[in-house]
Amino acid sequence: MARLNLLEETRYEKLAVTVYPDQQTASKKVAARIADVIRGKQASGEKAVLGLATGVTPIRVYNELVRLHKEEGLSFKNVITFNLDEYYPMKPDAAQSYVTFMYENLFSHIDIEKANVHIPDGTLAADDVAEWCLNYEKQIEALGGLDLQILGIGRTGHIGFNEPGSAPNSGTRLVTLDDLTRADAARDFGGKANVPTKAITMGVGTIFKAREIILMAWSKKKAPIIKKAIEGEISGEVPATYLQLSDNVEFVLDEDAASDLTRFDTPWLVKDCIWDTQLKKKAVIWLACELKKPILKLTEEDYNTHGMAQLAVEQGPVYNINIDIFNQIQHTITGWPGGKPGADDSQRPERMEPAKKRSIVFSPHPDDDVISMGGTFIRLVDQGHDVHVAYQTSGNTAVWDDDVLRYMEFAIDFEGSIGKDNSQLKSIYDDMRQFIEAKQPNQIDTKEIRDVKGFIRKTEAISGARYAGLQDDHIHFMALPFYETGKTQKNSVGEEDIRLTIELLQKVKPQQIFAAGDFADPHGTHVVCFNIIVAALERLKATEDWVNDCWLWMYRGAWHEFETHEIEMAVPLSPQEVVRKRNAIFKHQSQKDRPVFPGDDAREFWVRAEDRNRETAKRYDDLGLAEYEAMEAFVRYKF
Ligand code: F6R
């Protein structure tokens, strides 16, 4: 029987949830609780038996445990650990094994006895797996069970590798991984094809027996599955929902992972609210979508029956609220993303002055500019603004190896055709070919190969920007150093990244900046690139006046879109402009058909962009605003 929930605000939540502002704070709290268990057991001369997880979620918890060990003397001598799972088959010394992960992130940095570490064995012969699994269970039982189990959650709702369909009483066993889980792991393995199809995992029943269970989740990416796990019906389709049956479980979330829960997403359904402009806008749009009605047709009864009676009473009549919100949305629409010269701009998203603006479009990868805001980019140029584009990173990890050979062959033939000695190029080509033929998944390319990949993306970006109407001297390649690791894991941001950005900003002194506020991109490059721009602007603000007149607009890329209530500027695209945008995206040939990093969306980037821009226009249309072919959306960031 789950513990009683006495709060109205959390009435949709079927288990205990604690939300922290960010992952760092939450991880420290979880680490402190683990440390408490260890110390408590130490005090009574007992062993602490911990169930551990891998993945990106617990990394900061492990960092903090290492810190507690090194700086505060926390000893792990009395700790016995059992890991949740391991890929099968898997060699323990492989880069992707959970053995490697656990030693790199925790065990190598603390004083745990090696004999006390247990991780499922990925090297077993198939016939031995069942007995081995039974023994794993027995070992845990013999120690009196797990004192504390920590968990992450997969986007399928798996805990451990208990994928949809797992039974609540399942024990440690060999399982088949869900396709989405394999797609999520593709990055570590250098492609989904290299991800094992099976794993050995503790069962739901094994996890359930732990005296305390903490499930952690961070980031927006986890928000939808977290909502299902906490508010959904118990079902084998989302194995994490089984945890609702336990009294000993707590979900520890950051604000992003919690953001789809009813109390945060639609708080008016569970409590009285302070109705500021933003919440009002969100609620009215939500109501219109729920009822599939345009805003101006929403009635008092609609408000009253959907948790919005308080708003109707406080600020009604509802027709006035409807008109107010309708007008606010109407005012986000503009065909003049650089401001409309000579027009009253009191209700427009951008200022009319100066009539010709200096704008910089920052593009984290060499194609985000056209994918995300190609229509607006072209419009800005057409409307006579002084537009620059700055490609922040080389994007060289996202080019296929065979493209490198193709371009090298081209260069060799060209040198030959103009009578030059191309033997040096040929020998570089031979080395490249040899390297590529023997290349292991995720192996870092040679400098020459990385350079050629970068050049390929550079020429494509030039071609796209020229198509949008830019002069060559307005196209900038920053090749920020944080990105240049040759692998998906990037370096931390350094002074040089910020210095290069400051240098460009000082040269252009823009009145308008567009930057990717697309923080869900799978490798995190967008958020890093965005933070670099903000850091540069913050520094410049102290000494340069122009910064105070510079507006920063965020766009979103191939991965997701702003919610309607967030949008502050919506730039409509005509059918012809949609085609022009598509042509600009087509210039990025290396990313066409099947890019190296497609994320988990099978559509090509241009299709995603068009679908998304059409959806945005449809959302406006459904709310009762004018019907456009497509729309690009922006939100202003105030630094
Ligand atoms: C890891 C495990 C998985 C992960 C889950 C989330 O041992 O069993 O259930 O916890 O896939 O992975 P991350 O944390 O990488 O998002």
TrEMBL record:
<dbReference type="GO" id="GO:0005975">
    <property type="term" value="P:carbohydrate metabolic process"/>
</dbReference>
<dbReference type="InterPro" id="IPR003737">
    <property type="entry name" value="GlcNAc_PI_deacetylase-related"/>
</dbReference>
<protein>
    <recommendedName>
        <fullName>Glucosamine-6-phosphate deaminase</fullName>
        <ecNumber>3.5.99.6</ecNumber>
    </recommendedName>
</protein>
<dbReference type="InterPro" id="IPR006148">
    <property type="entry name" value="Glc/Gal-6P_isomerase"/>
</dbReference>
<feature type="compositionally biased region" description="Basic and acidic residues">
    <location>
        <begin position="342"/>
        <end position="356"/>
    </location>
</feature>
<dbReference type="InterPro" id="IPR037171">
    <property type="entry name" value="NagB/RpiA_transferase-like"/>
</dbReference>
<keyword id="KW-0378">Hydrolase</keyword>
<dbReference type="GO" id="GO:0006046">
    <property type="term" value="P:N-acetylglucosamine catabolic process"/>
</dbReference>
<feature type="region of interest" description="Disordered">
    <location>
        <begin position="337"/>
        <end position="356"/>
    </location>
</feature>
<dbReference type="InterPro" id="IPR024078">
    <property type="entry name" value="LmbE-like_dom_sf"/>
</dbReference>
<dbReference type="InterPro" id="IPR004547">
    <property type="entry name" value="Glucosamine6P_isomerase"/>
</dbReference>
<dbReference type="Pfam" id="PF02585">
    <property type="entry name" value="PIG-L"/>
</dbReference>
<dbReference type="Pfam" id="PF01182">
    <property type="entry name" value="Glucosamine_iso"/>
</dbReference>
<dbReference type="InterPro" id="IPR052960">
    <property type="entry name" value="GlcN6P_deaminase-like"/>
</dbReference>
<dbReference type="GO" id="GO:0004342">
    <property type="term" value="F:glucosamine-6-phosphate deaminase activity"/>
</dbReference>
<feature type="domain" description="Glucosamine/galactosamine-6-phosphate isomerase">
    <location>
        <begin position="22"/>
        <end position="244"/>
    </location>
</feature>
